[in-house]
Amino acid sequence: MLFFTIYMVTVARNLGIIVLIRVNACLHAPMSFFLSHLSFVDLCFSSIVTPKMLEIFLSERKTISYTACMVQCYFFIALLHVEVYILAVMAFDQYMAICNPLLYGSRMSKYVYVCTSLITVPYVYGVLTGLMETLWTYNLAFSGHNEINHFYCADPQLIKLACSDTYKKELSMFVVAGFNFTCSRFIILISYIYIFPAMLRIHSTEEESAAGENGGCVVHHSDPMLNPVIYNLGNKDVKEALIKDLFSRKLLSINR
Questions:
Q1: Is the confidence at residue 191, as pLDDT, over 50?
Q2: How far apart are CA 225 and CA 229, in angstroms?
Protein backbone atom coordinates (compact mmCIF):
# COMPACT_ATOMS: atom_id res chain seq x y z
CA MET A 1 0.00 0.00 0.00
CA LEU A 2 2.90 2.34 0.76
CA PHE A 3 4.46 1.82 -2.70
CA PHE A 4 1.07 2.36 -4.35
CA THR A 5 0.62 5.64 -2.46
CA ILE A 6 4.11 6.83 -3.39
CA TYR A 7 3.48 5.92 -7.02
CA MET A 8 0.15 7.75 -7.15
CA VAL A 9 1.72 10.83 -5.55
CA THR A 10 4.51 10.70 -8.15
CA VAL A 11 2.01 10.39 -10.99
CA ALA A 12 -0.19 13.21 -9.64
CA ARG A 13 2.80 15.50 -9.06
CA ASN A 14 4.30 15.01 -12.50
CA LEU A 15 0.98 15.22 -14.33
CA GLY A 16 0.15 18.34 -12.34
CA ILE A 17 3.45 19.97 -13.32
CA ILE A 18 3.01 19.08 -17.00
CA VAL A 19 -0.59 20.34 -17.19
CA LEU A 20 0.14 23.52 -15.22
CA ILE A 21 3.09 24.44 -17.44
CA ARG A 22 1.00 23.84 -20.56
CA VAL A 23 -2.01 25.93 -19.46
CA ASN A 24 -0.28 28.73 -17.51
CA ALA A 25 1.09 31.45 -19.79
CA CYS A 26 3.46 32.68 -17.06
CA LEU A 27 5.32 29.35 -17.27
CA HIS A 28 5.88 29.43 -21.04
CA ALA A 29 9.65 29.81 -20.64
CA PRO A 30 12.62 27.57 -21.51
CA MET A 31 13.25 26.32 -17.95
CA SER A 32 9.59 25.40 -17.48
CA PHE A 33 9.56 23.74 -20.90
CA PHE A 34 12.51 21.54 -19.94
CA LEU A 35 11.01 20.88 -16.52
CA SER A 36 7.81 19.59 -18.11
CA HIS A 37 9.84 17.10 -20.14
CA LEU A 38 11.81 16.10 -17.05
CA SER A 39 8.50 15.45 -15.29
CA PHE A 40 7.30 13.44 -18.28
CA VAL A 41 10.42 11.27 -18.20
CA ASP A 42 10.08 10.82 -14.44
CA LEU A 43 6.46 9.77 -14.93
CA CYS A 44 7.41 7.22 -17.60
CA PHE A 45 10.36 6.02 -15.54
CA SER A 46 8.23 5.22 -12.51
CA SER A 47 5.47 3.71 -14.66
CA ILE A 48 7.69 1.09 -16.28
CA VAL A 49 8.79 -0.29 -12.92
CA THR A 50 6.19 0.38 -10.21
CA PRO A 51 2.98 -1.18 -11.67
CA LYS A 52 4.68 -4.51 -12.34
CA MET A 53 6.41 -4.35 -8.98
CA LEU A 54 3.06 -3.84 -7.23
CA GLU A 55 1.55 -6.71 -9.21
CA ILE A 56 4.38 -9.00 -8.10
CA PHE A 57 4.04 -7.93 -4.47
CA LEU A 58 0.28 -8.48 -4.40
CA SER A 59 0.03 -11.71 -6.39
CA GLU A 60 1.15 -15.21 -5.54
CA ARG A 61 2.62 -15.76 -8.99
CA LYS A 62 5.68 -13.53 -9.01
CA THR A 63 6.73 -13.83 -12.64
CA ILE A 64 7.53 -11.66 -15.64
CA SER A 65 7.76 -12.86 -19.23
CA TYR A 66 11.00 -12.68 -21.18
CA THR A 67 9.49 -10.16 -23.61
CA ALA A 68 8.19 -7.94 -20.82
CA CYS A 69 11.57 -8.14 -19.13
CA MET A 70 13.35 -6.97 -22.30
CA VAL A 71 10.84 -4.15 -22.80
CA GLN A 72 11.30 -3.02 -19.21
CA CYS A 73 15.07 -3.19 -19.58
CA TYR A 74 14.93 -1.12 -22.79
CA PHE A 75 12.81 1.67 -21.38
CA PHE A 76 14.84 1.76 -18.17
CA ILE A 77 18.08 2.34 -20.10
CA ALA A 78 16.52 4.73 -22.63
CA LEU A 79 14.76 6.93 -20.08
CA LEU A 80 17.80 7.01 -17.81
CA HIS A 81 19.90 8.48 -20.63
CA VAL A 82 17.14 10.88 -21.66
CA GLU A 83 16.94 12.17 -18.10
CA VAL A 84 20.66 12.80 -17.56
CA TYR A 85 20.94 14.71 -20.82
CA ILE A 86 17.81 16.78 -20.16
CA LEU A 87 19.51 17.88 -16.95
CA ALA A 88 22.60 18.75 -19.00
CA VAL A 89 20.45 20.77 -21.42
CA MET A 90 18.90 22.62 -18.46
CA ALA A 91 22.38 23.51 -17.18
CA PHE A 92 23.36 24.74 -20.65
CA ASP A 93 20.18 26.83 -20.74
CA GLN A 94 21.21 28.50 -17.50
CA TYR A 95 24.70 29.15 -18.86
CA MET A 96 23.26 30.88 -21.93
CA ALA A 97 20.78 32.91 -19.87
CA ILE A 98 23.45 34.21 -17.48
CA CYS A 99 26.64 34.43 -19.51
CA ASN A 100 25.12 35.46 -22.85
CA PRO A 101 21.87 37.23 -21.94
CA LEU A 102 21.60 39.29 -25.15
CA LEU A 103 22.17 36.30 -27.41
CA TYR A 104 19.90 34.22 -25.19
CA GLY A 105 17.13 36.81 -25.43
CA SER A 106 17.33 37.02 -29.21
CA ARG A 107 17.43 33.25 -29.67
CA MET A 108 14.74 32.52 -27.12
CA SER A 109 12.34 34.95 -28.77
CA LYS A 110 11.60 31.80 -30.78
CA TYR A 111 12.03 29.63 -27.71
CA VAL A 112 9.60 26.90 -28.81
CA TYR A 113 11.68 26.08 -31.90
CA VAL A 114 15.01 26.35 -30.05
CA CYS A 115 13.85 24.33 -27.02
CA THR A 116 12.25 21.67 -29.18
CA SER A 117 15.52 21.29 -31.08
CA LEU A 118 17.50 21.00 -27.83
CA ILE A 119 15.11 18.55 -26.19
CA THR A 120 15.02 16.30 -29.25
CA VAL A 121 18.68 15.35 -28.80
CA PRO A 122 18.28 13.59 -25.41
CA TYR A 123 15.23 11.67 -26.64
CA VAL A 124 16.86 10.45 -29.86
CA TYR A 125 20.11 9.58 -28.09
CA GLY A 126 18.28 7.78 -25.27
CA VAL A 127 16.16 5.74 -27.70
CA LEU A 128 19.22 4.65 -29.72
CA THR A 129 21.33 3.89 -26.65
CA GLY A 130 18.54 1.87 -25.05
CA LEU A 131 18.04 -0.07 -28.27
CA MET A 132 21.75 -0.86 -28.61
CA GLU A 133 22.17 -2.03 -25.02
CA THR A 134 18.95 -4.08 -25.07
CA LEU A 135 20.05 -5.84 -28.26
CA TRP A 136 23.30 -6.82 -26.53
CA THR A 137 21.24 -8.25 -23.66
CA TYR A 138 18.83 -9.96 -26.07
CA ASN A 139 21.75 -11.81 -27.69
CA LEU A 140 22.69 -13.43 -24.39
CA ALA A 141 21.57 -17.02 -23.86
CA PHE A 142 19.33 -17.95 -20.93
CA SER A 143 18.20 -21.43 -19.95
CA GLY A 144 14.81 -22.37 -18.48
CA HIS A 145 13.15 -20.39 -15.72
CA ASN A 146 15.38 -17.92 -13.91
CA GLU A 147 14.97 -15.95 -10.73
CA ILE A 148 15.92 -12.27 -10.74
CA ASN A 149 17.07 -11.07 -7.37
CA HIS A 150 15.54 -7.64 -7.89
CA PHE A 151 12.16 -5.94 -8.29
CA TYR A 152 12.69 -5.02 -11.95
CA CYS A 153 14.69 -6.24 -14.97
CA ALA A 154 18.07 -4.54 -15.30
CA ASP A 155 21.32 -5.41 -17.03
CA PRO A 156 23.41 -6.36 -13.95
CA GLN A 157 20.82 -8.90 -12.77
CA LEU A 158 20.29 -10.35 -16.27
CA ILE A 159 24.03 -10.72 -16.87
CA LYS A 160 24.30 -12.90 -13.77
CA LEU A 161 21.69 -15.27 -15.20
CA ALA A 162 23.21 -15.58 -18.67
CA CYS A 163 24.65 -18.90 -19.82
CA SER A 164 26.73 -17.45 -22.66
CA ASP A 165 29.80 -15.23 -22.64
CA THR A 166 28.91 -11.79 -21.25
CA TYR A 167 32.23 -10.02 -21.85
CA LYS A 168 31.02 -7.89 -24.80
CA LYS A 169 27.80 -6.96 -23.02
CA GLU A 170 29.61 -6.01 -19.82
CA LEU A 171 32.21 -4.00 -21.74
CA SER A 172 29.49 -2.18 -23.67
CA MET A 173 27.56 -1.49 -20.47
CA PHE A 174 30.55 0.00 -18.64
CA VAL A 175 31.75 2.04 -21.63
CA VAL A 176 28.31 3.48 -22.38
CA ALA A 177 27.52 4.18 -18.73
CA GLY A 178 30.94 5.71 -18.08
CA PHE A 179 30.87 7.86 -21.21
CA ASN A 180 27.35 9.20 -20.68
CA PHE A 181 27.81 9.84 -16.97
CA THR A 182 31.08 11.68 -17.62
CA CYS A 183 29.77 13.60 -20.64
CA SER A 184 26.54 14.79 -19.00
CA ARG A 185 28.30 15.77 -15.78
CA PHE A 186 31.02 17.52 -17.78
CA ILE A 187 28.44 19.69 -19.54
CA ILE A 188 26.87 20.59 -16.19
CA LEU A 189 30.25 21.25 -14.56
CA ILE A 190 31.53 23.47 -17.38
CA SER A 191 28.25 25.38 -17.46
CA TYR A 192 28.49 26.23 -13.78
CA ILE A 193 32.19 27.01 -13.93
CA TYR A 194 31.15 29.90 -16.19
CA ILE A 195 27.97 30.64 -14.24
CA PHE A 196 29.58 31.18 -10.82
CA PRO A 197 31.89 34.08 -11.86
CA ALA A 198 29.01 35.68 -13.76
CA MET A 199 26.85 35.46 -10.62
CA LEU A 200 29.58 37.07 -8.55
CA ARG A 201 29.86 39.92 -11.03
CA ILE A 202 26.09 40.38 -10.97
CA HIS A 203 25.98 40.53 -7.17
CA SER A 204 28.96 42.89 -7.14
CA THR A 205 27.20 45.21 -9.57
CA GLU A 206 24.03 45.10 -7.51
CA GLU A 207 25.92 46.20 -4.41
CA GLU A 208 27.26 49.24 -6.25
CA SER A 209 23.97 50.30 -7.83
CA ALA A 210 20.36 49.20 -8.06
CA ALA A 211 19.78 46.42 -10.50
CA GLY A 212 18.12 47.39 -13.79
CA GLU A 213 15.44 45.47 -15.57
CA ASN A 214 17.96 43.44 -17.54
CA GLY A 215 19.95 42.69 -14.43
CA GLY A 216 16.86 41.51 -12.65
CA CYS A 217 16.16 39.12 -15.48
CA VAL A 218 19.67 37.68 -15.25
CA VAL A 219 19.40 37.24 -11.49
CA HIS A 220 16.20 35.30 -11.99
CA HIS A 221 18.01 32.86 -14.24
CA SER A 222 21.00 32.55 -11.92
CA ASP A 223 19.21 31.00 -8.97
CA PRO A 224 19.93 27.30 -9.56
CA MET A 225 23.35 26.31 -8.21
CA LEU A 226 23.61 22.64 -8.84
CA ASN A 227 21.91 20.02 -10.92
CA PRO A 228 19.23 18.84 -8.43
CA VAL A 229 18.51 22.45 -7.46
CA ILE A 230 17.51 23.20 -11.06
CA TYR A 231 14.71 20.67 -10.66
CA ASN A 232 13.72 22.13 -7.30
CA LEU A 233 13.72 25.65 -8.73
CA GLY A 234 11.38 24.52 -11.46
CA ASN A 235 9.15 22.91 -8.87
CA LYS A 236 9.22 26.12 -6.84
CA ASP A 237 8.15 28.21 -9.84
CA VAL A 238 5.41 25.74 -10.64
CA LYS A 239 4.20 25.69 -7.05
CA GLU A 240 4.09 29.49 -6.97
CA ALA A 241 2.11 29.52 -10.21
CA LEU A 242 -0.23 26.89 -8.81
CA ILE A 243 -0.76 28.87 -5.59
CA LYS A 244 -1.48 32.04 -7.58
CA ASP A 245 -3.88 30.16 -9.83
CA LEU A 246 -5.75 28.60 -6.90
CA PHE A 247 -5.78 31.93 -5.04
CA SER A 248 -7.22 33.76 -8.05
CA ARG A 249 -9.88 31.09 -8.46
CA LYS A 250 -10.75 31.36 -4.78
CA LEU A 251 -11.11 35.14 -5.04
CA LEU A 252 -13.24 34.74 -8.14
CA SER A 253 -15.56 32.30 -6.39
CA ILE A 254 -15.82 34.62 -3.38
CA ASN A 255 -16.66 37.62 -5.55
CA ARG A 256 -19.38 35.63 -7.23
A1: yes
A2: 6
